[in-house]
Amino acid sequence: MKLNELTIKQAYEGLTKGEFTAVELAKACLAEIKKRNQALNAVLTICEEEALAEAKAADKRIKAGTAKELTGIPYLAKDNYLTKGVRTTAASKILANYIAPYDATVIKKLRQAGAVLLGKTNLDEFAHGSSTENSAFGPTKNPHDLTRVPGGSSGGSAAAVAANFCIFALGTDTGGSIRHPAAFCGVVGLKPTYGRASRFGIIAMTSSTDAPGPIAKTVADAAMVQAVISGRDQNDFTTADVPAVDYEKEMGKNIKGVKVGVPHEYFLAGMNKAVEDKVKEAIESLRQKGAEIINISLPHTKSALPVYYIITPSEVSSNLGRYDGIRYPLPSDPAVLRDGAGTPNPSSRNTAGRGETADLMELYKKNRALFGAEAKRRIMLGTYALSAGYYDAYYLQAQKVRTIIIEEFEAAFKEVDVIITPTTPDIAFKFGANKDPLKMYLEDIFTLSSSLAGLPAISVPCGIVDKMPVGCQIIGRKFEEGMVMRVAGRFA
C-alpha cells in the first residue's frame, strides 16, 4: 500500500514506529495531487511549501515523543474555511483574491494537533449545490467515473479522499453537503450535531444549520478528527459546552440490543431500486449483528424540502450581503481564474473597480454580477421570502414546520437509538443531468430533515450499483455522535 492510501490509524502507527516520516507522507500525497488533480479538479490551492514545513515540525514532535494522533497527518480543507495567509475563495469569483488574515477555529485546532494542511478543495460556490458543478473554477469530477459528479457541496473534499490525495479532509454540511458527496464518492462523511464544532472562520451559508465535519476513509478516522475539532468556542456562541465522549471506546461496543429505526418515508417511489436494495441489505446486516430493527414514521419528512429552501435562501441573502466589493478585495484586482491545467491564471481582469464609478448602486451591480447563477437565485428567493408582506407567509411558517420536524425526531428517539436511511435516492449522476434547479434540490431530500433538526448524521458506504458507490445514512440524537459511529462502524 502506498503512503497516501493509508488511513489515519495506519499512518499514525507508521509515523510513531519510524517506518516513514511526516515529510515522506506529505510528499506522497502532494505527488498524487500533482499527478491526478488536472483530471479531477478537486484541489483549488496547493500549499506545498507550507505543508512540508508543517511536516518537518511534526517529525520533530514525533521524535520528541509529544505527538498526538493527528500529528503529521496530511489533510485538505474545503475552500470555505479561512486559512491564514492562504487564498480562501469559497469557489467564487467575488473572493478570487481573498487571503484570510486568520485561521478558522477548526483549522487552528488541527494545527495545534500537528496535522499538515496540504491545500484547499473545490466546492459549489459558497456551498450552494449538490454536485460541485456550481464552482466558479470548474467542476470536480468523481474519481470512480470522470463523467459523473462527486456530489456537493463538499465535492472536492470527498473526491480528494476517494482519490487518496490526502488522509482525510474537512467539509461543511448545511443540508447534506458532507454526507451527499461522501455517498457519491464511496467514503465516510460525518455531520456532527449543530454546535458540536465551531463555525468561527467558516464562510457562512445558512448560520442556523452550518456544521463543520470530517470526510475520511473509515468511521474510526472520522471519529479521531471529530474528537479534535469539537468543543466550545468563545468566538462562536452557538457552540455547546458539551464534552465529546471517547468515540473510540464507544465504537468498541457491540450493537446487540441497539434499537434502529427505519422510517418508511425515506424509501420513495421513484428512487433507484438497486440503491434501495443495498440500504435494506445494510439494515438486515445490522439485524444479524444483534440490533433491533423497528419501523417508524416521520410524516413531515415531505415538508423538509420546501422548509429548507425557504429558510436557507433567507439566511443566504443576509450572509451574502457583506460581499459588496468594498469590505473584501475588489474584483478589479487580478481575478484568479482557472486555466486548462488547473493553475491560477492572473491574466483575466474585471474592471469594476471602486475608483471607476461614483455611484454606489452601480458599484454593487458591477461587483455582485460576479456571483454565480445559483448564488443569485438563492439571494433573490431569500430576499423575497423575508420581504414585507411575505415574511409571515413564508419564513415564519417555515420555522413553525421546522419545529414540527424537530418534535417528530424527538418522539422517534424515545423509541429508537438511531435512525437508518439511504443517503441519496440514486448513485452519482452524469454532468449536466440535473439542469433543473428543483431536480437538483431533490438530491438532498434524505439529508435535509436531520440538518433542520440539528442532529448528528453520518454517511457510510454500503455497496456498489453500476460500478458506483451507494451511501447509507445513520442519524442520532443530539450530541450522540458516539452512538451514531458505533452503528456506522459496522459498515466502514
TrEMBL record:
Q: Name one GO cellular component term.
A: glutamyl-tRNA(Gln) amidotransferase complex
Report which reactions are catalysed by this protein.
L-glutamyl-tRNA(Gln) + L-glutamine + ATP + H2O = L-glutaminyl-tRNA(Gln) + L-glutamate + ADP + phosphate + H(+)
Instruction: Print the keywords alphabetically.
Output: ATP-binding, Ligase, Nucleotide-binding, Protein biosynthesis, Transferase
Q: Name one GO molecular function term.
A: transferase activity
Superkingdom is Bacteria
Q: Does the keyword Flavoprotein apply?
A: no
EC top class, in one word?
A: ligase
Q: Which HAMAP family match?
A: GatA
**What protein name applies here?**
Glutamyl-tRNA(Gln) amidotransferase subunit A
Gene encoding this chain? gatA
